[in-house]
Design brief:
alpha/beta; two-stranded antiparallel ribbon; single chain; Glutaredoxin; six-stranded mixed beta sheet; globular
């Protein structure tokens, strides 16, 4: 009985942070919502400035297990498309200290654009109606073309969009 209650409690705790929606590739074009925020280095980042690139907009957090599991895939994708019109912008939905996320990004060698300012990240997440993490959007020329792809499926879709 104790094992069943423990399993139920764990499911309830994990579900809000798991990927509850199915992968979506859209044939309709949905406008991406522009934002301006400072990246980890203090530079302004504006989504609309990436007009001629495929952008993977990644909502994540250091405390999120599924987000951490996706990091090796993101590292591979970044390396695979390093000399192409592709960029990753990660929005860290942390619960506290930004020093922790800075250290984590450095340790993991996540060498792409990171927005970690707590206020900016929450505002962007609200605009995109983020309900769980990780959540990812593939964007090109201001249009959302796919959401919540993972692993090889994500890499193949990026390849298709970058070399189209």
């Amino acid at each position: 009985m104790k094992k069943a209650i423990f399993a139920l409690v764990m499911m309830v705790m994990i579900m809000p942070f798991s990927n509850g929606q199915e992968t979506t590739e859209t044939t309709e074009t949905i406008d991406a919502i522009n934002f301006i925020a400072r990246d980890i280095a203090g530079n302004n980042v504006e989504l609309s400035a990436y007009k001629n690139k495929v952008v993977l907009l990644d909502f994540w957090a250091t405390w999120c297990g599924p987000c951490r599991q996706e990091i090796p895939n993101l590292l591979d994708i970044k390396e695979s498309f390093k000399n192409t019109p592709f960029e990753i912008i990660s929005i860290a939905l942390e619960r506290g200290n930004t020093d922790t996320v800075k250290r984590f990004i450095e340790e993991q060698k996540m060498n792409w654009v990171h927005i970690i300012d707590l206020t900016s990240c929450r505002q962007i997440a609200e605009k995109y109606q983020i309900r769980y993490i990780p959540t990812m959007f593939l964007i090109r020329n201001g249009k959302i073309l796919a959401t919540d792809l993972r692993g090889q499926e994500l890499k193949e879709k990026i390849k298709q969009l970058v070399f189209k």
